[in-house]
User: What shape does this take?
Amino acid sequence: MSKIILTGDRPTGRLHIGHYVGSLRRRVELQNSGDFDEIYIMVADAQALTDNFDNPEKVRENIMEVALDYLSAGIDPDKTSILIQSQIPELTELTFYYEDLVTVARLQRNPTVKTELGMRGFGDSIPVGFFTYPISQAADITAFKATTVPAGEDQEPMVEQTREIVRKFNSVYNCDVLVEPSILLPQNQASMRLPGTDGKEKMSKSLGNCIYLSDPAGDVKKKVMSMYTDPDHLRVEDPGKLEGNTVFTYLDAFCKDEYFAEYAPDYANLDEMKAHYKKGGLGDVKVKKFLNNVLQETLEPIRTRRAEFEKDIPYVYDVLKKGTEKAEAKAAATLSEVKKAMRIDYFEDQEWLDSQIRKFETRQ
Ligand code: ATP
Ligand code: MG
Assistant: This one.
């Protein structure tokens, strides 16, 4: 069976370092591994509209920003199709049919939907489209027959729901048209769900607690220096706590041993630095300066590439257009198999016409 990747991001803002460690970094590695037959990365504008329907300009403006983030992080359009969700009507059509296979109760139990509904404060005015977006995500994943979805922990319930839809579809329509995907979570715990600079549970565009991939070096430094640490670590000599200490969580996600020789030669690795912090005698400012250097190491090459791509927006436009065209061809092929399995392929099926002719002939 072919190995196929589908992932994506909502164009609700530029991409941040949570996206990077949660999914983007891995996508680039997988892309370059050569282990996959097809790779699709989706700018999920239709999904972004489910909770931003009254702010279409925000979504429209961020399409190009997200595409620039992809290219500058190392996504290569020769190996990966970058597509815009709303431009592929087949995805909407699949969503409509999958809606028959999912109950309201099942959607209400989806833990990510529950959290996000709370965060957005819809109260009694939950848009139906937002509530059902896991079904649309199932359409996105299955349209490309994806086997692998590299994503952060918050996407686990979505992929599980997709697997259920696939099983139900294949069993109800007695076929093997759809493929069950699996999620590929980040390798380390800190990257599963990177907290915000304010220490809140998740860095998220909607919460405004982000370090963006495209932030200038000075902004990154400013954000790092004002980050949340251990509120009880008042004097340098006090013992510090690592749990819930966002600066150390970021180091867990980004730090490599080789950075110590250059930026913190007193320590051989992160474990030694952590031990010193816990014992007391290591100040927050010193750790933050180290984190800033570590982040700049990762972000500087991305920023430099971005500056180059920003000079050639028509090229980026072309990448999006070609990627979307290629993706639509694949989605259309899947949709036609789906419609055949669902017995709604009347005009492609001569047998249907013949059977109807026979049926009405016998009535005469
Ligand atoms: P929004 O607030 O609009 O939902 P977001 O910041 O949550 O935006 P998404 O576009 O919903 O970003 O997520 C895209 C991908 O990035 C998903 O795979 C998700 O798991 C991953 N991701 C997003 N935020 C984080 C994070 N803080 N840590 C790890 N992965 C993340
Ligand atoms: Mg999100």
